[in-house]
Specification:
Dihydrofolate Reductase, subunit A, alpha/beta, elongated
């Protein structure tokens, strides 16, 4: 019975934390609920980096602080134990004499990683860890991937036809550039995704052929940092990607001076390009990255097994000939229908067998 009650309140923590998706970087998403005699007396979540953490917001929301010493605090991530932009949450929990703390999962960040749990246990607090652990981990998979793999959480996204092409053959385009496979409803969903992630990357051909803006103009939210691979500096200044309307980085082998909102980062060796890019993004604290193509980049990332999630739209059209999409020999982890298309989500695991054949 107690375990079911714990799961109920932990799910509420996760739901609260999710409200700040896309706004807490480089911090994780955290929600907190304080319960006294099976009644919620306080709750809160972390809104933005530099602002109070979820536990502090929850404690501050409690009207009768004398009840805290008889309450249970639920939080989806281990309370911090270090001084950053805010004091340690574990200290605040100890100071308010909270007797029991239920935690979704441990914090992988090296400044925490069990230290908050240890500090609270030494203070005599009952600590229970692992309630909705998988769900808590999934919520902050970007944060955990960044700290464990020292690179962003990588989402591959593309749209394909019923016969698995992502673009028409050149002789079938009749002079047109990019071909839209899905519809406006799918397009809006993609813009919503962009508000959740820190960066978005495309290659030279996609930038030149499709001339995308890579913004969130259809929805309210932050624009991701735009990234373009253009090793030979072939892209003209007339493209949207060079309009300086939002911060943009171009990875190139040329020595080019940066400008306002248009930064050039030199790649020293094309053979080590991905290592250099991932290392650069790690130093910039970029925890999540959407890669939208084109085909060569998608295949290269897949071949290197450097992806964490795939989001694939399958539209109603047939192209019959063209540029093939990567082929996935694995059932999707989830599917749904959006607008005129089917959306399939895949997560990387050892059972995935993927090729461009």
């Amino acid at each position: 019975m107690t375990h079911n009650i714990d799961k109920k309140y932990m799910q509420l923590c996760i739901d609260l934390a999710q409200k700040a998706c896309g706004n807490t970087y480089p911090n994780p998403m955290v929600g907190c609920v304080i319960v006294h005699n099976n009644s919620i007396i306080g709750k809160g979540y972390h809104h933005k980096a530099g602002e109070p953490h979820a536990e502090i917001n929850a404690i501050n929301s409690v009207a009768h602080k004398e009840l805290l010493s008889e309450s249970t605090l639920y939080v989806n991530l281990e309370p911090c134990a270090h001084y950053g932009k805010t004091p340690p949450c574990s200290d605040a929990i100890i100071e308010h004499d909270i007797q029991r703390v239920v935690i979704g999962c441990r914090d992988a960040y090296h400044e925490v990683d069990g230290k908050g749990i240890e500090r609270m246990r030494k203070a005599g607090i009952q600590i229970d860890v692992g309630v909705l652990e998988q769900e808590s981990y999934a919520l902050n998979r970007r944060f955990f991937t960044f700290h464990k793999k020292q690179r962003p959480y990588i989402i591959l996204k593309w749209a394909q036809t019923q016969d698995r092409f992502i673009d028409r053959a050149a002789d079938m385009k009749n002079g047109t550039k990019g071909v839209w496979i899905t519809d406006e409803i799918c397009k809006k969903r993609v813009h919503e995704w962009r508000t959740h992630e820190q960066a978005i990357l495309i290659g030279t051909n996609t930038a030149h052929i499709d001339n995308p803006q890579l913004t969130t103009r259809l929805v309210k939210g932050n624009n991701p940092l735009r990234l373009v691979i253009d090793l030979k500096n072939r892209l003209p200044d007339s493209l949207h990607i060079k309009d300086k309307s939002t911060p943009t980085i171009i990875f190139t082998q040329k020595q080019i001076p940066s400008q306002h909102n248009l930064e050039y980062v030199r790649i020293l060796n094309s053979e080590t390009m991905w290592t250099e890019i991932m290392g650069f993004l790690y130093t910039r604290n970029i925890q999540s990255l959407i890669i939208e193509g084109g085909a060569r980049i998608l295949e290269d990332v897949i071949e290197k097994n450097m992806w964490d999630e795939m989001r694939i739209f399958t539209g109603p059209e047939y192209f019959y000939r063209g540029i093939q999409a990567p082929h996935i020999h694995k059932k999707p982890d989830s599917t749904e229908y959006i607008g005129n298309s089917k959306l399939s989500i895949f997560f990387n695991d050892s059972e995935a067998t993927i090729s461009s054949k």
